[in-house]
Amino acid sequence: MPNERLKSIMVSGGWTYTSLAEKAGVDTKSVERWANQNRTPRLVAARLAAEALGEDMFTLWPSLRRPRAARAISPEVVALYEQRADLPVSAFVGLFGQATERIDVLVYAAVFLHEAFPRLNDLLRERAAKGCTVRIALGDAESENVRQRGREEKFGHGIESRCRLALLHYGPLLGTSGIEVRTHGTTLYNSLYRADDQMLVNAHVWGVNAFGAPVWHLRRTGTGTLFDTYAASFDDVWNAARPVEES
């Protein structure tokens, strides 16, 4: 049975078997078979031929198998913010304030938290007193990766000084039961702010300061692996980080 639709489109567009074969990267006999015997082309050839004809390849050849539609978004994604600056500090504070089991923070500095919410240390002490484990991983100001981040973000030595400032902010928490602070020198692909089964992931973009990069709000649902992937990355950095001792 001929493919009448294909033949009609070729005639109206002035296509020959040879000219369409050249566009699709096949021999002329293949195009003859498509038109006269309704043979189904290989996927790549079908796409090239359909693009040349200005048609949908699945309409021209219904027997082609459509690719399975990808899931648009993970069920673990609560929200996506275009920039961290779009997220009020109250979102971070509210997340930490609800934690009952653990709070994990992986950053280089993130001094915006203390600057916007001076009671952060009090909040962390309160959570720890109620049995919450608090782990804070800050960037090592002496590490080459921190220095490189400053160069990439055109922030110069600012990032190093902010790492030192962050350590001063968290310093009063050293020695508090349930709270530990460490420094790390890893390449920071994402800043992580976890409270129990919720997490804010501040993705890092080359040359962009963290406040201008996107933030994913994730929630562990038991039906995905996204949350656990980031949680595992925190543990890997934490295990390689250096504990900060009281001076």
Give your account of this protein's structure.
This protein has helices at 4-13, 17-24, 28-36, 43-53, 57-60, 89-98, 112-116, 120-129, 144-152, 158-170, 226-240; strands at 77-81, 102-106, 133-139, 179-184, 190-195, 198-203, 215-219, 242-243. The chain has 247 residues and is an alpha+beta fold. It is elongated, with a radius of gyration of 28 Å.
What distinguishing features does this structure have?
alpha+beta; 434 Repressor (Amino-terminal Domain); Endonuclease, Chain A; 8-stranded mixed β-sheet; 8 strands
Beta-strand residue percentage: 15-25%
Spatial arrangement of strands, main beta sheet: 1-7-6-5-2-3-4-8
What does the average pLDDT come to? 89
From N to C, what is the helix and strand string? HHHHHEHEHHEHHEEEEHE
| Cα shape | elongated
**CATH T-level fold name of the largest domain:** Endonuclease, Chain A
How many individual β-strands? 8
Corresponding CATH architecture of the largest domain: 2-Layer Sandwich
What structural category characterises the helix and strand content? alpha+beta
Topology at a glance:
Layout: H1 4-13, H2 17-24, H3 28-36, H4 43-53, H5 57-60, E1 77-81, H6 89-98, E2 102-106, H7 112-116, H8 120-129, E3 133-139, H9 144-152, H10 158-170, E4 179-184, E5 190-195, E6 198-203, E7 215-219, H11 226-240, E8 242-243
Parallel strand pairs: 2-3, 3-4
Antiparallel strand pairs: 1-7, 2-5, 4-8, 5-6, 6-7
Helix pairs in contact: 2-3, 2-4
Short description:
This protein is of the alpha+beta class. The protein has eleven helices and eight strands.
